[in-house]
Amino acid sequence: MAETEKTPKSVDPATLKMLEKAAQEKISTIFDRAETMKPCNIGEQGTCCKICAQGPCRLPLPKKGIEGEDTRVGLCGATPNTIAARNFARMVAAGAAAHSDHGRVVAEVFLAAARGESKDYTIKDTKKLVQVAKDFDIPVTVKEGDKEVPRDTREIAVELGEKALAEWGRQEGEIYFAKRAPKARYDLWKKLGIIPRGIDREVVEIMHRTHMGVDQDYENIVKQCSRAALADGWAGSMIATELQDILFGSPVPIHGEINLGVLKKDTVNIIVHGHEPLLSEMIVVASRDPEMLKLAESKGAKGITLAGMCCTANEVLMRHGMPIAGNYLQQELAIITGAVDAMVVDVQCIMENIANVATCYHTKIVTTNPRAKMKSGQTVHIEFNEHHALEDAKKIVRTAIENFPNRKAEILIPDEKKMMVAGFTFESINYHLGGTYRGSYVPLNDNIINGRIRGIAGVVGCNNARTMHDSAHLTLVKELLKNDVIVLTTGCNAMACGKAGLLTPEAAKEFCGGGLAEVCEAVGIPPVLHMGSCVDNSRILMAATAVVKAGGLGNDISDLPAAGAAPEWMSEKAISIGQYFVASGVYTIFGVGLPVTGAPVFQDYLFNKLEGIVGGKWDVAVDPYEMAKKMLAHIDKKRKALGIDKARERVLFDMEARRKLAEEEAAA
């Protein structure tokens, strides 16, 4: 009996089929390595310090736990709390840097497009351009005589690009988007002194503070963690999301397909994998080019299939309806189908082992970013440059087409694939709740107040080979849905939900409690709203802000009956995301574990005392059922504090009530 049958490593049938094929063909995958390589227990506890050459200093918890005073120290005298806080902070810094460096590249390309220096990119969403310009204090009208007339779009775009790019190098003051938060949240950040000054400054300051012999106060270290994380969530990531929407068009709900079954035996199969849509947008255009399609036919293919992997997949899905081949743990398995002619990668979450797996097949691994190269396997580097973006994209597509005749292994493409609806933004949710003229979050708030919707959950994050693939994601989401909690999702969790059929309006009837099902049916939305890639967690922040501003549920994000979770997290980006949600006032719970258990005092600070300071806190639950219980308990605590813990009678809006609402909104 195959190993995958004895101990299933995934809840996804397509994944299990490909693991079976991998075993038969003696291909090692991350699933195999997770079994044979056990994690370091001191590293798991967060108390291994290697920031100087006197170590590493290892401070494991005693087997019986701490009894009395904790006397463990490193060579320099660093306590477990200092060591764990430094390690935690460096994860925040790396995650914030990854997201924000992505955002910087977007800002650079946006500015080049605005100046007319990059012919392949144009401004597609002028309405959003004007909205975002206002957040940057950019005038959008000019005076002509006695009249205010719209300012030239290109002038607005250039000024926005310049101001956005300056957010990375800002040395003083505060990031522009901080004032997007509810006033109570902004005022609290101001009082605590944690509004970020500039993105790069906050990341550099973490690295300085955590150098040997600098900051040795774990509370002070966490304060800087909050600044850097907020610079990610409310600046780097948010700028990336907003400028991508302006450049490529704001997503609207769109149908797509997901899972390995989207690959086709008789077409050239190209997988775009990574996180930067600047590349994938151009590959979409190139893959549809008549010249490329004709070349594919000349090689015996019946067309070109372009599919996504990881967060690039979410980007091309949300704007083009392009299919998704899978999430993080499926990247090796896509190659093992034998049908992938090229896997095109840029940055983040790309396993080096895909190059080794590719050597067993015909697949070309095409690296495209100067930050991320591979030396092993049959890789080829085709550097992507925004100044000749389409030309580079065609070169990449041509590489895949010319590789099509070189297929040498048995092709096995699983049948599994599902339809889904993606492309939700905080703006499109507003539209769905009332249309063009009555768009408002008030109906959502009313249904939370009357109890039909119990609360809101953001469920996001990666896969982790130390857990059963997709299992914790789906268990948690289903538990929340049946308890009438609407779910906002991004990243690999969104893909897990798509593969399980949770991203369709029909899912509400099957998986939701009666109240949430009724609301979803009335509005015509899925109970799980796919909001994009991991940088698009900023959309969730803005949705939470919109709920606060709609009224009736408190004055701050921390007042909302809402919680966040990352059930299968694995990346440093997840720690940065978690910290900016905590610092924004959200109860945030992670699965798998958090590397702080070796420092009980520091853990207690993150898990309990921090809530009294910023309104949000960390928590951990390995069991997704326990995670759901904790999230529901927090949501119920917030409902009670708001005085809405008892279901209220539903109020149907007549025309008079709608007119009154419109008048109130106009006055506001």
Task: Explain this structure.
This protein is of the alpha/beta class. It has 29 helices and 18 strands. The strands form five sheets. Strands 8-7-6-9-10-11 form a six-stranded parallel beta sheet. Strands 15-14-13-16-17-18 form a six-stranded parallel beta sheet, sandwiched between helices. A two-stranded antiparallel ribbon has the order 1-2. α5 runs antiparallel to α9, α5 packs across α25 and α10 crosses α24. The N terminus is likely disordered.
Give the arrangement of secondary structure elements:
Blueprint: H1 3-6, H2 13-24, H3 30-36, H4 41-45, E1 48-49, E2 57-58, H5 80-114, H6 126-135, E3 141-144, E4 147-150, H7 153-169, H8 183-192, H9 199-209, H10 218-248, E5 254-258, E6 268-273, H11 277-287, H12 290-298, E7 304-309, H13 310-320, E8 324-326, H14 331-336, E9 342-345, H15 353-358, E10 364-367, E11 379-381, H16 389-403, E12 418-422, H17 426-432, H18 435-438, H19 442-449, E13 455-459, H20 471-482, E14 485-489, H21 491-499, H22 507-511, H23 514-523, E15 528-530, H24 537-550, E16 562-566, H25 572-583, E17 587-590, H26 600-609, H27 611-614, E18 618-620, H28 624-642, H29 655-667
Parallel strand pairs: 6-7, 6-9, 7-8, 9-10, 10-11, 13-14, 13-16, 14-15, 16-17, 17-18
Antiparallel strand pairs: 1-2, 3-4, 5-12
What composes the largest sheet?
6 strands, parallel
Percent helix among the residues? Answer: 40-55%
**How many strand units?**
18
Number of helices: 29
What is the CA–CA distance across the termini? 67 Å
Mean pLDDT across every amino acid position: 94
Strand order of the largest sheet: 8-7-6-9-10-11
Measured on Cα atoms, how large is the radius of gyration?
A: 25 Å
